[in-house]
């Protein structure tokens, strides 16, 4: 194995170790506190960690959970790996590519869950103002449904608590979940997107990527993103990255758990298709889980409350 790859793996392992240790120590210090106090303190700690990374980043990729970030990340990883001849098969992280080639930028991928808790500004994105931000958006109806299955089959118990998801083993259906106030609900996704729409004009450099545009014309959307980053990836390498990150290949990688040494892309239960990280990748698939009157309700909620910047004001066309 390449020496640089080994060093990067060790650095990543050390980073994960210190994160886990800091959270364990926090829990020990607060052992006499109630659960709500411990969860608030952990959110602030996570926010501090993420803000430190944010301030060191050259680019920030922001998305609500289950908006297609893993797909975009695999695609970008392959394009930049080929462009800079970076060895190994690790997925693009914060600084792992930069450590192997100084031309590669430091890229911070975040769901922006906790920085607001550390900054104490839930309605402001001021920590991001001086940064180059790529916002990956997906139709909130599909995002919410995908979060439902993430909660039900993949999410760790502590993540459910800290992000206000339904309790473990809760008996709640898709529509009731979407129209609740839980984490990942339609209101939660819309609120996230609306704050970013209001704050986008204050960001130093801002680029919006819509999941649906990536699905419709992947090569063009990826080229526009790389142009924003001023990375002149060749057409050959771009095409190879698009092919590598196809839905079919991503499913195969997950089945083999081959995406990275960390196993980021792996099913929780190989016999349950809803436990896969790469589940369906379907535009407008939310309709498959709702009755006609429920579809009308969620469509109206999006049309009446979501900022028009995203152009999700009407029913989304189904696309396999």
Describe this structure in words.
The structure is a single chain. It contains 14 helices and 4 strands. By secondary structure, it is α/β, with parallel strands linked by helices. The protein has a 4-stranded parallel beta sheet, sandwiched between helices. Mean pLDDT is 89; it is low at 258-263.
Strand order in the largest sheet? 2-1-3-4
Overall form? globular
Distance between the termini: 39 Å
Q: Which regions are unreliable across 5 or more consecutive residues at pLDDT < 50?
A: 258-263
Features:
single chain, alpha/beta, globular, 52% helix, 320 residues, 4-stranded parallel sheet
List the helices and strands and how they pair.
Blueprint (H helix, E strand, L loop, with lengths): L2 H27 L5 H22 L2 E5 L5 H16 L11 H5 L6 E4 L4 H5 L12 E6 L2 H14 L3 H6 L11 H5 L7 H14 L5 E6 H6 L1 H11 L6 H10 L2 H10 L35 H14 L15
Parallel strand pairs: 1-2, 1-3, 3-4
Helix pairs in contact: 1-2, 3-12
Summarize the structure.
The chain has 14 helices and four strands.
